[in-house]
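Supplementary Methods S3. Input chains for the assembly prediction are listed below.
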Amino acid sequence: MVTTGVWRLGYASRFFVYLLVHSGTALGRFRLTMREIYFAGVLSLIIILVSGLFVGMVLALQGYDTLQRYGSSEALGVLVALSLVRELGPVVAGLLFASRAGSAITAEIGLMKATEQLSAMEMMAVDPIARVVAPRFWGGVLSMPLLAALFSAMGIFGGYLVGVVLIGVDEGAFWSQMQAAVDVRNDILNGVIKSVVFGVAVTLIAVFEGYDAVPTAEGVSGATTRTVVTSSLAILALDFVLTALMFTGGN
Amino acid sequence: MADPAIAQIEDLTFAYGREPVLHGIDLDIPRGKVVAVMGQSGCGKTTLLRIIAAALLPTRGRARVLGQVTGDLDRDALYALRRRMGMLYQFGALFTDMTVFDNVAFQMREHTDLPEEAIRDLVLLKLEAVGLRGAAPLMPGELSGGMARRVALARAIALDPELILYDEPFTGLDPIALGVIARLVRQLNDSLGATAVIVTHDVAETLPLVDYVYFMAQGRVVAQGTPAEVRRSGVPFVEQFVSGATDGPVPFHYPAAGYRADLGLAGGA
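Predicted structure tokens for the full assembly:
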């Protein structure tokens, strides 16, 4: 089983390099990629925005409960904003993206393989990796940072709704402390870098599992499951590595 | 002078894994004819078709298609070769996210620089040839099986290929659709001046249609000839296949222990 895993990892790496080399069609004929940005990004908006709102609201509730014990309830804005921008935005948006868009991409490519559409395209002298896989890859990579940013924004708004409107934390303190504490380079940029890395990881796993799926019903079902599980684990593992590199090295 | 055989298979052996699926096959596909490759499921005929299509490479031996040995080709040459061929898959394999029109236009848009007006005329021409010009705006999900296969046929001939490969084109169709596809195969071959290779096990529909037949069993060619010769061939497997007899060289019973012993009756071994 380990040998198969290592073999597959090698195959996936070669697949990734091939994909990058043959991305000319996806980036040159941008309409193909735009279609995939719509399917992966725009259609994920509802789940991202609603989840972001709820996560922000819960953060504010929990955060206030702890902060007010030490008389620091005015730091609620800082707590909500930093938690979201540094961690929860990229990670939770990544997990949601993996389960919604990642599984959809895997299922679509896997079903195209099972119904011989990829084979037919290959027979018509059109490279299916360039024409079908690469646009989906770049669509996911371009959508993910935007979705993570929207998640964080909605979360901060949710935190505002609960913290200021519902609980009654001082509005001025909420926003001004947040503005002072959140740094564009250290916090926001690092969050963006994380979301780009997660986007690459999730979308790569999604397109690879779809392309490598066994062309039967069970095969596609197994592939979509593996996409969600592997992407989620990858996000969490990469999050640890990136956080360790970004947020503790400065001291 | 054009080569009389559009495809030549020379002493071809092929294995997916360790067990060979094809053993030492020799066959020629004569130019301009409709040739059938027939046999039971699992005899290797679809594998042979894929080797002719250069989707698979021989393990041993050679496949020469349209003047080129498939094993010698690099990717660009392989793609250039494929543009001269068309393949019809068993269930059509239409692109489900595009309309019928876009499916047929696909190759024209990808491989030529024709303006959209010219492509539109060509697509309608191809759809008219298969009788589905009115279905152009439909999505593949809205088509019946027979219609999907006809659209796939229009797509396969979009760039006027020299060699058209059919993978089980008659399977699962009602008698009317069967007759339509059979008529189209012959008509398109004659009007395009192309060559057709049909992989099938439908004897009744195929023998009246084709010019030459190869019979395969367990990865070997067991009989060949024109349909009339094949009917008279006297090869027991061919006779059983053509007549549809339930017992003969291909036995009815899967190998098993004695029947009485299995039922637990006395007197069984």
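Chain A has a mean pLDDT of 94. Residues 29-239 of chain A form one domain.
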